């Protein structure tokens, strides 16, 4: 009787006929199957998570999920879980397994013959630190090493205040407590860790300005991190542009410089469809 209640059919006879047609043809079941299929088609893949981490590390940037103390190690897993699954994790790195489990995510504890997979988020103890450490796994482990992207591993003296950017790393299982297994499609799809080099950009003419929130962004001759660097802008600088678009995992703005040649700046990351995941400043 929802058809009547919703006002789709004001005539009682017409509404009854629609209900009869739905029941006789089992259209409600068909509709449910379509919704299920749509959900399956849009399920996040491990490759999406790994590609984001790889692009972040290649950019030399980091992500600051909570806006406190810069790009700490826990910001990366916390951002991933929030951006793709809408869940806010709490605590320091060492607390993330308990936090994830409390909110219904699968947690796997380190044990013999149990290995992390690409897109898992590992948590480890660190001698002399009450905070622990965490990061994202970017390749199925062979049981001996774990290939990762991690933040705040540069060892800078002010790491507890400002953190450190995302870096590629390979570690063994020393100190690893376990990992969060995200609800993703684990169909094996290898991600190349080299910067993407397509010369195609989906670009739209648009005038605007961008103000940097990060320490530095390089100016490039074409929209790829493999492109020639011809200059840079610093934190707080504002750049005027006449075009924007996406390519190679990043969102780009561009303008014609004093040399008469077009300049490109990567100002954030996108998914494969060009949807912005995060920006490294403010678009105006």
From TrEMBL:
Domain spans labelled SH3b: 205-274
What reaction is this protein's catalytic activity? Hydrolyzes the link between N-acetylmuramoyl residues and L-amino acid residues in certain cell-wall glycopeptides
Q: Which residues form a coiled coil?
A: none
Q: Name one Pfam family in it.
A: CHAP
Q: What is its EC number?
A: 3.5.1.28
Q: Which domain of life is it from?
A: Bacteria
The segment(s) forming the Peptidase C51 domain are 48-181
Gene3D superfamilies per UniProt: 1.10.530.10, endopeptidase domain like (from Nostoc punctiforme), SH3 Domains
Q: Which GO terms describe its molecular function?
A: N-acetylmuramoyl-L-alanine amidase activity
What protein name is recorded for this chain? N-acetylmuramoyl-L-alanine amidase
